[in-house]
Specification:
This protein is mainly α and 110 residues long. The chain has helices spanning 7-19, 22-27, 35-44, 48-60, 64-81, 89-99. It has one domain (7-99). The N and C termini lie far apart (31 Å).
Length: 110
């Protein structure tokens, strides 16, 4: 896995690992994991394709964090993850717009 000159990718891996830590899992045991949490879990364990497949519908529905991660995977997939993740030009354009909306919180998260 290569993260040269890509602090976003490094932050995403740290975020995914932190979200999958046992303490976080115990604290949130009462609530079933959300679709985003499941995608992050796949990401944290290096199941890139499963993570991408879980993120795409969330990104398409307007989830800012999912759009940001899906966009990263679609645009930098071969270099960072060793494989390509298919996304149409219109999807990429939409995800870019969603991800760049800094003022709008992601659905279900504050």
């Amino acid at each position: 896995m290569e993260f040269t000159d890509n602090s976003l990718a490094q932050r995403m891996v740290r975020f995914a690992i932190a979200r999958s830590a046992p303490g976080v899992q115990e604290a949130t045991r009462a609530a079933p994991p959300s679709a985003f949490d499941r995608a992050v879990e796949h990401f944290a364990h290096g199941c890139w394709l499963k993570a991408f497949e879980a993120l795409v519908p969330l990104a398409d529905a307007g989830d800012r964090e999912a759009a940001r991660i899906a966009m990263l995977m679609a645009t930098r997939g071969p270099r960072l993850f060793g494989q390509a993740f298919p996304a149409s030009p219109s999807q990429r354009k939409r995800w870019q717009g969603i991800a760049s909306c800094a003022s709008a919180p992601a659905p279900g998260r504050v």
